[in-house]
Amino acid sequence: MTCLRNPLLLLLLLASLSWSCEKPTDISAVTGGGDLVIISNFSPDQSLNVVVTVTRSPLDGALQQEYVTDATVELFGEEGEFLEELTLSEQKNEEGAIPFYTTQDFVPQPQVAYTIVVDAPVHGTATAKSRIPEPIDLLSSRIKNFSRQVSETGTTNLQYEVNVSFQDPGKKQNYYHISLMQELFHYALSEEGDTLVGYSSYRPLVFDPADNTQTQIAHIGGGMLLDDGAFNGKIISYDLPVSFDYDATRYLHGQLILELRAVSEEYFYYFSSLSRQSGSKGQPFDDPVIIQDNVEGGRGVFAGFSSSVDSLAFSH
């Protein structure tokens, strides 16, 4: 069961899958230097958050990565103007919390190129640049061909298709991430036999990378990455087939959250290459997958996106 209450945690875990394969370990990692890793996905009118870690070699007895909490993190605008120095989150001392740097007085806007500069003692300086695409409105979204099968052990399988329709603006290359999150309600039975419904959580719907094409790539964290090469400037009506299992003795399924993200080029190529690497069979004659990040002087991703969100109910 994956409970996505901290998207920064998911993003960091996804990114960490690439660190061991992206570049060979050098002597700086063994002697305490390591490579800075910047992880940040940012969207309009939200605080811009940045997780900073450093890679470590297993030869020095340390963890594969560690958080950097003494860096200077600065944000610059389109013309190179200084916007804000990010501050370390107040959650840093909470048990299990991921330390991250965040803006206090500034929120990003679409179609503005932002540059992040991270300067960390010992580990040096890393920079990255990206912008937020304009949001793309959903024309329609619906669930169709729904069926449910319950096994004798209580495992329930939901099968359905999610149809999403939107207008690609054309004129330029556009990139998308269709994300699906299944709501699950935790429940228990009282002594009187009543169903007591508790809190809800969301599980991302992950697709099989074996079904990848040149324009359709299963995102490692759930959903599907698309570019508009096959439908540039057209209305696209896209079907996603879903097969989803959950334990019906513990959970009740709720609504489906559909998010259409218009993503930057940096977002698309980083996560598509990361997802292709994760889906690789690792055979000796397979072509290597190079992680396409956009961080100069380090690794990771600094990428903008915008969202259109809809909630879909199931008809039984």
Short key terms for the protein model shown above:
316 residues; mainly beta; Immunoglobulin-like; 2 domains
List the helices and strands and how they pair.
Elements: H1 7-22, H2 27-30, E1 36-42, E2 49-55, E3 65-67, E4 72-76, E5 82-85, E6 87-88, E7 101-102, E8 113-120, E9 124-131, E10 138-150, E11 155-167, E12 175-189, E13 195-204, E14 216-218, E15 224-227, E16 235-247, E17 251-263, H3 265-279, E18 295-296, E19 299-312
Helical content band: 10-25%
Distance between the termini: 24 Å
CATH architectural label of the largest domain: Sandwich
Structural class: mainly beta
Q: From N to C, what is the helix and strand string?
A: HHEEEEEEEEEEEEEEEEEHEE
CATH topology of the largest domain: Immunoglobulin-like
Strand content range: over 45%
Number of strands: 19
The CATH class name of the largest domain reads Mainly Beta
Broad shape: globular
Mean pLDDT over all positions: 83
Q: Please count the helical segments.
A: 3
What value does the Rg take, in angstroms? 21 Å
Low-confidence stretches: 1-32
Biggest pleated sheet: 11 strands, mixed
The number of domains is 2
